Amino acid sequence: MSEPGLSPYGRTFGYTEEVSVVRQTLANPNRFGCLLLGPAGIGCTTVMSMALAQVEANTPIYRLRGSEQVRDRELGVLEILLSQAGVGTEVGVGAALSMVAKVIAQDSSTSIPIVRVDNANLVDESSLSVLCHLAEARKIRLVAGAESVRAPVDIIAKLWLTGKLTRIDLSGLDEGAIAALAATSKQNTKSAAELYRDTGGNPRLLNHVLFGQEQIQAQDRILWNISEELKPIVEIFAVTGAMPYGALSALCPWEKIDAMADAGIVTMTKGRDAAVMIAEPVIAETLRSQMMPSHSLRLFNALDKVVDIGLLEGQALFGYLRWALRLGYQRPADYVYKAMVWANSRGRYEDTAMLARASQYESHEMRLEFVRAEKGLGNIESANRHFDQLLENLDIERSASRLLSRVASMDFRLTDPRTPGRLRTGWIRKQLTSPVDQGRYGSTQARFEQRGGRLIASRNLAENVYRTHACQTRHRLRACAILGFDEVCLGQVETGLHYIRQAELMFELPGATSYEIEDAAPQLFVSRYVAGDWEGARAALKVVDAGERMRDFIGALVDIRTGHPARAQVALAEVLTQSHEEDFVDIVRIGRAAKRYADALLGKNLQASDLPDQSQVESRVDRYAWWSEFESRLYDLQTLALTRPEKAAEQLFELGCAQLDREALAVAAGALMEAARLGHKRAAEELGRIAPQIQGALGHLASTMSRALLEGSAGALLDAAQESLEFGSAIVCSDLAKLAQKRAVAENDRSAVRRARILVGNSTRTIRFNAADARMDSVLSGFERRLVDGVVDGRSSQELGEAHHLSARTIEWHLGRIYQRLQVANRRELRAVASTWKARA
């Protein structure tokens, strides 16, 4: 395939266009899949791996690999899938087709599974026939890699002849790409043409020729250090994730495990139930991907003979059961339930769903864990269906209080918080007798009320749980974070932030699960964000593993509010490339609104159709949150205000009043300040009324802005602009300072005009140049920086001219350009700016 427009590095390090073709094919409902062809080392596996890494997270992917050991064994590559259906490879092709289809259908409730076949030319004909029939029936999407279309791959090639399968011939690297790669080698002496002639553009051969020993990676060195005797033990770790130290004594002498730990191949936890695991995740993945089905069966049988399932905990229990169930071996339901709880507690919802489907047990507890996993995966319709079935079969009189509490909590999570009347389990509260179960119920209900915008009810529920020390610590943690957010929104900012700091400390205690991360973590950020604690908001999720995407999103929102739209625009463009079900905050909805505002601030002309309809609602009711709706609406109205200020002012006032009805004074203040700044008098009056009820810097800023906008004098507006800048709102400061400048000119107040000009300059510099990496050398040329240094040293224009062999008049012209670029009026202001920049350097 040709690759027009691709850079050499794009070809060398990623097969960019080929990966894109595979992704597009998998997204096309009219295609069966892809067939990638090319000699060994050409990059078939790389292209498939890169493309499949970017598919939706809930899409099941089955990875099969051909080899010399299975090429002559009928249905050999499908051995594990057939074992899950309870049959062996001795069945006929027709029976195998229906059995494999049944197994795959268990994991395909929301999307068509993908079957990836490496080394398809080393797969038996019967297996490929089964996979091709499944692809034609649209039960799977087939992605296969092979060296050529010779038998048995010609079976797949027939699908390509129908026009329903995409064929990609990988031809290797061209001379331009080879030259780019060769430039990075220290030992190459050949030209690009010679390298192409010797290797045919094969990436694997090129790496060997160009780099030799330089290219050996850490995983290769580690794998080479594993003896053949110990390799099966390490492979067991790779499949299970971890195994207790004592369980391995029948398989391997302890001193050899200790030697592997000393060599850095494995690590061991401490304590009585110490577990052993592979040190590098990439090593585990490499071993798993290379393991043949028959070898997997042999390893499991060897482990099963010596392991005591009753001694397994956490990752070891989960890994063992996942392995057993995938091979078709059933295990006791109580252990499967225990593994499901562990996986859900760590947010591994797909793994939990797999265990539930494979085990085929139907206890209330296991069905509830499956509902939790389906909800976590975003399969809300399936979650509600199974939840209703659970309620139909639930025996209230015989059910334990813990189960009832967890059932009611799940009802809160699945129900739209705007319609509390649709709750199905309100009667359960009276059945709860244990403080632990009441704490779980109360904290979940508090979050439900908060998401619906009923802050007073949420605060009362959360406070009751937080102050009841008989409740579990993790439930009190959730309640503490919810209570902190409620207090901030209600105007008790300092009180709320105190609770948030307490919740952050409680996160350091053991026992936090995915529920605490889902419920409590968002409050840490949002509370500080609403309060205007920008640095605290930026660092809020360091106590939890929020991921780079969430941290980038939070940083972008803070950047917009503090006057760095360009930096926010870049971050949001990257963040919004794909969504994740595990996001703590509704990134997509808020992020899109924030990016529209950043685009508009930076001069992009938005069409009327770019702004969403006000009636647009959240499609995922389980993810609806009142604050997310408010914040995204606020961004959209701020965007509208840049072109239609009068219309936006009225709608901002209405938005603020709607929050006052909830008594969310701190949140309402944000909308009312925007409306008042646009000239809405009633908004300014309402802002002045609620400002004394809001604690901290936010309340003081609201009071100052209200007084300034109602009074209208240049002095009052300048005070408000100065306070806005200190609060961190550079954009608000700039607008107020410009308004003050106009009033000062009208009043002929030269002192106010000069002060306004300085504030405009300071806020403009913040917006343009205050990025984390902005320095004077990124704004001025070298010659201009030398002129600034001369001004700082007190040199006159005549002296600077003599030093640079220029006239004083030319020096003044250059200084005028510097003044304009840095938003200063004279040498004194320039010296102040330069000293600030040097302090940041």
- CATH architecture label name of the largest domain: 3-Layer(aba) Sandwich
Number of domains: 6
Shape, per Cα inertia axes? globular
Class of secondary structure makeup:
mainly alpha
**Low-confidence region ranges:** 1-14, 579-583, 770-774
β-sheet strand percentage: under 5%
Question: How many strands?
Answer: 8
Instruction: Enumerate how many helices there are, as a single number.
Output: 42
CATH top level of the largest domain? Answer: Alpha Beta
Biggest beta sheet summary: 5 strands, parallel
| CATH domain topology of the largest domain | Rossmann fold
The Cα radius of gyration reads 32 Å
Specify the CATH homologous superfamily of the largest domain.
P-loop containing nucleotide triphosphate hydrolases
Mean pLDDT: 81
**Strand order within the widest sheet?**
2-3-4-1-5
Helix coverage percent of residues? 55-70%
Q: What is the end-to-end distance?
A: 49 Å
Domain HTH luxR-type: 777-834
Organism: Brevibacterium aurantiacum
Pfam family, one: GerE
Protein name: Regulatory protein, luxR family
Produce the secondary structure layout.
Elements (H helix, E strand, L loop, with lengths): L7 H5 L3 H12 L5 E5 L6 H9 L8 E5 L13 H6 L8 H13 L8 E5 L6 H12 L4 E6 L7 H8 L3 E5 L5 H8 L9 H8 L3 H9 L6 H7 L6 H10 L2 E2 L9 H9 L3 E3 L6 E4 L2 H10 L2 H14 L7 H13 L6 H13 L3 H11 L4 H14 L2 H14 L7 H14 L20 H17 L3 H12 L6 H17 L3 H14 L7 H18 L2 H5 L8 H15 L3 H11 L11 H15 L24 H16 L3 H17 L3 H13 L3 H10 L5 H16 L2 H14 L2 H18 L2 H20 L12 H11 L4 H8 L3 H15 L4 H14 L1
Parallel strand pairs: 1-4, 1-5, 2-3, 3-4
Antiparallel strand pairs: 6-8, 7-8
Helix pairs in contact: 2-3, 5-6, 8-9, 12-14, 16-17, 16-18, 17-18, 17-19, 18-19, 19-20, 19-21, 20-21, 21-22, 22-23, 22-24, 23-24, 24-25, 24-26, 25-26, 28-29, 28-30, 29-30, 30-31, 31-32, 32-33, 33-34, 33-35, 34-35, 35-36, 36-37, 36-38, 37-38, 39-42, 40-41
